[in-house]
Every structure is written in structure tokens, then in C-alpha cells.
Write a structure and sequence with these properties.
Largest sheet: 5 strands, antiparallel
Radius of gyration: 22 Å
Helix content: 40-55%
Structural class: alpha+beta
Number of helices: 12
Shape: globular
Oligomer: single chain
């Protein structure tokens, strides 16, 4: 139903700007939200998104200087919750890193459009082509992580934010292992909703929650060790990063923000479909902030963390390779840290997963 509402909204908007030569007048709620001293000249469709209508607003201040904005419309209950979360998350990120995160202006309910829809308004940045510079990106992301401070000194966020079009479970928790377990369990549940049930993956995932997560993440906060909850973007991949067309500096947008273990950000980069998985990005980040102890388990934590983003992607892309990647990662971690006993391995002897489960 959410996707149908977005399509209806886009069709209605398309009819308006097609009649006017490709431009349209933003909703009155958006016009009202424009800062004082800035006047709107025109607006046109800009970019592409499955879950939203996106546009550029051309505006000027009283001196005639251009002051453009980026506008997003999302219909229905998804728009209400997703865009509020995006606005709040972007606001916290911008306060922390105004040289890395565009300034959010406003969000709210549209007055004149059907179906019921909501808007998000942010300052516009002009981006050039290509991937972000690894050194610049690594330094900015590490600075963001190091300088952030959780208001509760716990992991989580004070409201729901969305990973794409999917809600995240972000209740405050002092234990990272406990928090991540709930986060990835909800991602897995949403994946199961839109995919055929895979019995072997279900078995692997349940063992991960009961055994791997307590072992691999529990040690981060045991025997005198501690980790700081850091504000992360939460969905940082090349599609959510732009290079300033004049300076080449990176800017990030479309967050799924929450306070997490800083390495979680790199787990998102590491997904096979993401170009940020390239080694230079990780190397440059680690020049600025070290892995947590035990450092020898850093790569395995990244392998675990990327399962969350893979389950989320699989939830919106049924049948994609992401769940196979998650399965392979979890089997590797089980085999390494909490191996199956022979009785469980026997279950897989007649399947094509025996090799993955180890001998």
C-alpha cells in the first residue's frame, strides 16, 4: 500500500508540472517553511527515488543571491514517520558536523495534495560525479563519531528512524550486544515478511542471536573494556554521499541515524553491493579512529554488522543476493566462534549448505 500511495502522489504531481512546462508550485506548507528573506522562483522534479517525489526549489534572497533547496514528498503514514525521523536525525548530524551534513530546514504535512503526504526541506548542495575521496570521507566520518555524545550515554535514539523505507528498533540500551540483537532481529523479521522462508537461514540466525552476538559483541563491554555510543549516519553508502562540485568535499544525506558502536558504520560500507567496501575507505577511516578491543576480531564484527544492512535491503528487494551474503557471513561466524555439534550438522547433510557449515 505504501508504494501504491507514492505512485499516486507522483502521478498527481507529474500532471501538474507537465501542464506547466516542467515546473510546479510547492505546497503552501513548504512555502511557509522557507526562511524569511528568501523568495521562491520555481521548482522542478529533481533526482529519482522509489519511495518519494524529489525536487529542487530555485529561490533567491533579498540581494538576488541564489538560495536553492532540496524538497522531498512522501505519502501516507510512511511519510509522517519517515520524514520526521529524517528531519530529527539530520538535525542532530548537522549540529555536530555542519561542514559534512546539509542543513535541514523543516518538515511537515502538505496542505493541498492527495493522497495525504508530508514534506522534508533541506538546503541544496551541487554535487559532481564520482565516488568520495577516501581520505576526506574517512576523516569526516571519524570526526563525527569521535565528537558525538549520546544524551543518555546509551545506544539507540529517542525516536524511530528509517533505513530507506523500513523502520528500525532503536530503544535505548546500555548494552551494545543487547541493542544490536534487537536491531538485527527486527531487520531479519522484515526480511522474512517479504521473502520465502529459508529454514537453514532461520536456524543460522537463531544461533547467531543466542550464541554469536553474546560472544562477539559481549566482549566489547566486559573485563574492563568499554565502547562509546557514537552518532552514526546509519545508511551510509555511495548513493547517500555527494561530492561538492566546487571543493570536492563529501556531504552526507538520507540518514538512518542512531547512537551505535562506531564500527557499525563500516559494516554498512562492507556490503558487497556497496562501492565503499573498497579497502581505501576502511584504511583512511582507521587512520583517524582505531578499532575497538579485541582488535583481532574487528573483521568479524564488520561481517556481523553488515548482516543488518543486508537483511534490510533484502526486505525491500525480495530474492536479491543480500540474504545469501548474510547467510554466508553468519555461517562463517558460527563455525569460527560457536561451532555446530554433530547432531545439528547432520540436518544439513542432504542439503547444498553442508560445505558452508564446515566439516
Amino acid at each position: 500500500m505504501s508504494l501504491e500511495l507514492q505512485d499516486e502522489l507522483k502521478r498527481n504531481l507529474a500532471a501538474i508540472y507537465d501542464e506547466s512546462g516542467g515546473t510546479f508550485r510547492p505546497d503552501e506548507a513548504v512555502i511557509t517553511a522557507i526562511p524569511l528573506g528568501i523568495s521562491v522562483k520555481s521548482a522542478h522534479s529533481y533526482g529519482h527515488s522509489t519511495w518519494s517525489f524529489t525536487a529542487k526549489i530555485n529561490a533567491e534572497n533579498d540581494n538576488g543571491d541564489p538560495k536553492p533547496f532540496f524538497l522531498k514528498y512522501v505519502a501516507g503514514d510512511l511519510g509522517l514517520k519517515q520524514l520526521q525521523g529524517e528531519f530529527v536525525g539530520m538535525s542532530e548530524l548537522h549540529k555536530l558536523m555542519p561542514n559534512f551534513v546539509p542543513k535541514p530546514i523543516a518538515w511537515g504535512k502538505l496542505r493541498d495534495y492527495q493522497p495525504e503526504a508530508y514534506f522534508f526541506l533541506i538546503e541544496f548542495k551541487s554535487f559532481g560525479p564520482g565516488l568520495p575521496n577516501p581520505a576526506k570521507l574517512g576523516a569526516r566520518v571519524a570526526e563525527m563519531h569521535k565528537n558525538s555524545l549520546s544524551p543518555t550515554n546509551m545506544f539507540g535514539f529517542h525516536m524511530v528512524t528509517y533505513d530507506g523505507a523500513r523502520p528500525q528498533v532503536l530503544d535505548w540500551d546500555p548494552s551494545w550486544a543487547s541493542f544490536f540483537s534487537k536491531l538485527v532481529t527486527e531487520a531479519y523479521r522484515q526480511h522474512v515478511e517479504t521473502n520465502v522462508v529459508w529454514k537453514e537461514l532461520e536456524m543460522v540466525f537463531q544461533r547467531t542471536v543466542s550464541h554469536v552476538i553474546p560472544r562477539l559483541l559481549g566482549v566489547l563491554q566486559s573485563d574492563g573494556r568499554s565502547i562509546k555510543p557514537c552518532l552514526i549516519h546509519g545508511d551510509m553508502w555511495e548513493g547517500n554521499i555527494g561530492n561538492d562540485i566546487q571543493t570536492g568535499d563529501p556531504w552526507i544525506f538520507d540518514p538512518a541515524a542512531y547512537y551505535a558502536h562506531h564500527e557499525m558504520e563500516l559494516g554498512i560500507w562492507a556490503a558487497e553491493r556497496h562501492k565503499l567496501r573498497a579497502k581505501p575507505y576502511r584504511v583512511e577511516y582507521l587512520r583517524n579512529i582505531e578499532p575497538s578491543e579485541p582488535k583481532a576480531e574487528f573483521d568479524d564484527r564488520i561481517r556481523l554488522y553488515r548482516c543488518k544492512t543486508n537483511f534490510m535491503f533484502s526486505a525491500i528487494s525480495p530474492g536479491c543476493p543480500s540474504r545469501q551474503e548474510a547467510f554466508n557471513d553468519l555461517v562463517f561466524l558460527i563455525d569460527k566462534y560457536v561451532p555446530w555439534d554433530d547432531e545439528v550438522k547432520d540436518h544439513f547433510k542432504d542439503t547444498d549448505q553442508l560445505e558452508l557449515l564446515g566439516d
